[in-house]
């Protein structure tokens, strides 16, 4: 899915909500354990069906699948097939390795699995990111400023004439166009996000940290939109997935997603 | 496997060779394609049997399994079962994510899969590494200075009173003891490795970059050993795995591994 198509979905639905499909076995609704198919798959089927009208993207965090072993990797493949073509598909994998290895990761996520986008760590430098960028019809989502407190340990260190995360983003923005390169910027750092938007007016930001991590949605929408279009994918995982763990889990997830979508609509109105 | 047991293996075998099991479908010996089991598994079975006497560790690079989809993840599990208990098992996964996610990765590699060690990216800071360190009977192998040219983009940036990689290693060395924390230091930066050894006399270094990447084994052995014991795991992947792609691939791999082991023996002699 290219930028125009993604922006068109955002405009049409008036939402830039991305839903994180991070299956936590300990929090799955108990009603699902009796079914014929794997409870995670039944869960995702119901969640996707209920929430698809309120979001434009789904993000699958590989950790939550890998913890289930090879079954988990199967569930990752099967979950991906449940997502309609109208929705942007993100592998939240944060891979980062030397070129020869990175090429295998890029193939895994873009070719074998068919994701639209994958999150990538910039730590190892350009040659470790290039194999992802070589897929010019796919998206590389580079870690900029992550939402966790630990981002202060290294990413927020002064490095030359700015912080390390700024240096990384500035350098990386020269590696590819904003039509195939996004940045992760955590909602938990609203003033930094505002400054980053001024420095990078054209890039899409994938914004985690709303919901369970406490980021302020309104602040992000006010200051985070790009110059020419929304330029935001705002991710919510747990607050939607586990809105209820009773039999009404899907309805509860849809209501929560609709609530986020409504909040976004006000801010996105009138945008191209 | 704890430090004492690992050092005992190194002492006994007079080698600190680690062999990377990175299955490249395009380079597998053609003789394996006719067998009953998956060619990757047959390949690893033969390679492990042939090389086990000459190495103390095997390192599985997850990228080369993930590119094969859920079958690949199964092969990862099955390959792990082929490795004898006498050998140290490393997941070269370079995972790095926020705490809540990192906890799932740690469970995946230490519990579900049962690796002794996993490589971890420090970029997201202490809270992203802590879930791995919480397994005090396992090893966290943190990226220090990676072997690729791209490490010059960010890891080798001046940051405060040193380079970023030094800053990371110094800070991280306070997070856990050298009995559960190693660093990745590339063989392609011999003078930096020598300096790092002086700054970190007690930590094990996992050293990639020998073989296909051109690092100098002798230089590493001369300057890289720890104060109290070898403190080195030197990884070779392609140069051993694909020493021959003919019917003699296992013998050729064993010969190549034995050759590396012999070079190491001279330097390790007399070490505890």
Q: In terms of quaternary structure, what is this?
A: homodimer
| SSE order of chain A, one letter for each helix or strand | HEHEHHEHEHEEEHEHEHEHH
Using a beta-carbon cutoff below 8 angstroms, give the protein chain pair with the largest interface and the number of residues from each chain.
A-B, 57 and 57 residues
Percent strand of chain A equals: 15-25%
Principal-axis shape of chain A? globular
Second rung of CATH, namely the architecture of chain A: Alpha-Beta Barrel
Count of domains of chain A: 1
Characterization of this structure:
Two copies of one chain form a homodimer. With 272 residues, the first copy, chain A, is an alpha/beta fold. Chain A has a single domain (3-268), classed as Alpha-Beta Barrel (TIM Barrel). The first copy, chain A, is 42% helix and 17% strand. Chain A is built from eleven helices and ten strands. Chain A has helices at residues 3-13, 39-51, 63-66, 69-82, 99-112, 126-133, 164-172, 190-199, 217-224, 238-241, 249-268; strands at residues 17-20, 57-61, 88-95, 117-120, 139-145, 158-159, 162-163, 181-185, 205-207, 232-236. In chain A, the strands form two sheets. An eight-stranded parallel beta barrel of chain A has the order 1-2-3-4-5-8-9-10, surrounded by five helices. In chain A, strands 6-7 form a two-stranded antiparallel sheet. In chain A, α2 packs parallel to α4, α5 packs parallel to α6 and α9 packs parallel to α11. The longest helix of chain A is centred in the C-terminal third of the chain and has 20 residues, at 249-268. The radius of gyration of chain A is 18 Å and the shape is globular. The relative contact order of chain A is 0.16. The mean pLDDT of chain A is 95. Chains A and B meet through α3, α4, α5, α6 and β6 of A and α3, α4, α5, α6 and β6 of B.
